[in-house]
């Protein structure tokens, strides 16, 4: 399994608008995506009000590529979030069975 960590930093003043997108669109989309085993969405905190994240566990690389395409190592941008986000990053890891 593959752990995918996606982090976003919003433009200052866009936190509330991004939070609405995050809760109403991004989280439901990932919960319904084929190949996603689990998600852990992380909302902004008072000490980091512009930062949001997703930890996703994917069944396999094929499932991830079916969702993100061959360029799965680049963060994908939903048109609804494009003007809200100042920076984004994505990292992938092999999940270790604890």
TrEMBL record:
Highest taxon of source: Bacteria
Pfam family, one: ABM
Positions of the ABM domain: 1-72
Official protein name in the record: ABM domain-containing protein
Provenance organism: Pikeienuella piscinae
């Amino acid at each position: 399994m593959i752990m995918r960590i996606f982090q976003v930093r919003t433009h200052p003043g866009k936190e509330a608008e991004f939070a609405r997108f995050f809760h109403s669109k991004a989280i439901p989309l990932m919960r319904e995506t084929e190949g996603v085993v689990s998600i852990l969405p992380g909302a902004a905190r008072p000490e980091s009000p512009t930062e949001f994240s997703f930890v996703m566990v994917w069944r396999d690389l094929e499932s991830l590529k079916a969702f993100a395409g061959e360029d799965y190592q680049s963060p994908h941008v939903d048109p609804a979030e494009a003007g809200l986000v100042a920076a984004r990053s994505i990292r992938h890891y092999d999940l270790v069975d604890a």
